[in-house]
Amino acid sequence: MDREKIGDVLRVARTGLNLTQSELSGLVGISRNYISDIENGRYTPSFETLIKVTNQLEIDLNTLTS
């Protein structure tokens, strides 16, 4: 899956949980700007960061790799 699709999935999950980027960044321990960059396809997160984000958003990591 390309980084734009990953960002789209993460954004939909985040908004579905009524979380702001700032709230998610606080839960995960990364900056709000980095959350924005991931969601907008500017950066591909490390595997470690992706695990932290998907855990907070209750997303099965396997859905991002298919």
Automatic annotation (TrEMBL):
Whether Nucleotidyltransferase counts among this entry's keywords is no
**Top-level division of the source organism's lineage:** Bacteria
**Locate the HTH cro/C1-type domain: which residues?**
10-64
Which keywords describe this protein according to UniProt? DNA-binding
What's this protein's name? Helix-turn-helix domain-containing protein
